[in-house]
Design brief:
The chain is α/β, with parallel strands linked by helices. It has two domains: 23-300, Aldolase class I (TIM Barrel), CATH 3.20.20.70; 309-402, Golgi alpha-mannosidase II (Immunoglobulin-like). It is 27% helix and 24% strand.
């Protein structure tokens, strides 16, 4: 009897050790799109701002363009009650999160919220450490659709265990909530989190700068180009339901229009989540034109779900391809320099087989129609090479359409 009991015990241990956190698989089949409060407002958020953003997401057409998540970042929190359940800041959110969620849902939008795997959030509010199941239950009760889960004050906490725990808590609460893991890429979550979260940060925080680093004692924030470089080698880990997240967009927060256009384009080429971070209540026509370009958004939201790849670099010009459903390709020239550059496109130089998508460009046997997605003009086809001018810190972006 003891022998059989021991075998049964070992079998149970094996089963338990093989269990993985299980997210809600039906979510994030394409990269999530929405808005987050942090990049523009940081801790200065309140109920009035969020309701105003919700109104504008509908009025501006952002919702209909695909931006459906309205996400509160840090500093919405009040204190925990006598039982340990989290409450909203009574001054900033006097109506409570449930009432706010109901309002956002009435607009045809979804609501996101923020917490932290540590003892405190990055803004000094109560973290979820030790309260994971309570917090997940409260989020479900409020009607939350998206959770961004940060990584401040996490000394001596194992990230794999911490994120698995919150993923399990969300599943146990019973409401499908998109789980956005913000661990900053330290533990290489792309290698272990496919079944845990729907997206994971690959880097530290983005900084509102096209090409620079913001140095702080003990940490750094990174410009758009620095974060772009950090995505190298990660594309094989992304796909429908599990996305690499190079952080939220800074488009509309004060960079030049050409830089914003390049920033938005490259996030679409990366099949990155498109989470706006500007004040959309006062959005310029130029910003609106960038973030609502449906043809560029379509590259990001392409159902094949494959991240783009850099295939060549020449004199500050990077050449990027992204395979698309139906045999099309996105083709992008990124000029990282501060001066305009001419570039000669020799299509036959770019015959290659993509290991991730199992697609071939096959320029030898295929002629593609060339459509410029920013000028919205047709530029012939790939039967002839062509010269283009790539403006400084800007892009030339084509959709190469097969059989047209």
């Amino acid at each position: 009897m003891n022998k059989y009991f021991l075998l049964f015990f070992l079998f149970c241990l094996t089963c338990i050790s093989s269990l993985k956190a299980q997210k809600f698989d039906e979510l994030a089949k394409t990269p999530p799109m929405g808005w987050n409060s942090w990049n523009r407002f940081a801790c200065d958020i309140n109920e009035e701002i969020i309701r105003g953003v919700a109104d504008k997401m509908v009025e501006s057409g952002l919702r209909d363009a695909g931006y459906v998540y309205l996400n509160l970042d840090d500093c919405w929190h009040g204190k925990r009650d006598s039982l340990g359940f989290i409450t909203a800041d009574p001054v900033k959110f006097p109506s409570g999160i449930k009432a706010l969620a109901d309002y956002i849902h009435s607009k045809g939008l979804k609501i996101g919220i923020y917490s932290d795997a540590g003892r405190q959030t990055c803004g000094g509010r109560p973290g979820s450490f030790g309260h994971e199941y309570q917090d997940a239950q409260m989020y479900a009760k409020w009607g939350i659709d998206y959770l961004k889960y940060d990584w401040c004050t996490t000394e001596d906490i194992n990230p794999i265990g911490a994120y698995h725990l919150m993923s399990d808590a969300i599943r146990a609460a019973g409401r499908p909530i998109l789980f956005s893991m913000c661990e900053w890429g330290h533990s290489k979550p792309w290698t272990w989190a496919k079944d845990t979260g729907h997206m994971w940060r690959t880097t530290g925080d983005i900084y509102n700068c096209f090409d620079c680093v913001d140095e702080h004692p003990g940490w750094k924030a990174f410009g758009v180009m620095q974060i772009l470089d950090m995505q190298e080698g990660l594309r094989k880990y992304a796909g429908p339901g599990h996305w690499n997240d190079p952080d939220m967009l800074e488009v509309g927060n004060g960079q030049a229009v050409n830089q914003d256009r390049a920033h938005f384009t490259m996030w679409c080429m990366l099949a990155a989540p498109l989470i706006l971070g500007n004040d959309i209540r006062n959005m310029s026509a130029e910003t609106k034109k960038i973030v609502m370009n449906k043809e560029v958004i379509a590259l990001d939201q392409d159902t094949l779900g494959v991240q783009g790849l850099k295939v060549a670099t020449q004199d500050s010009i990077e050449v990027w391809f992204k395979p698309l459903a139906g045999g099309d390709w996105a083709f992008c020239l990124l000029n990282r320099s501060k001066v305009d550059k001419e570039y000669s496109i020799h299509w036959q130089k770019f015959n290659f087989d993509d290991e991730v998508s199992k697609r071939s460009t096959n320029f030898y046997n295929t002629t593609y129609a060339i459509n410029n997605l920013w000028t919205k003009k047709s530029e012939g086809n790939t039967s002839k090479d062509k010269k283009v001018l790539v403006p400084a810190q800007d892009v030339v972006l084509y959709r190469l359409s097969k059989g047209k």
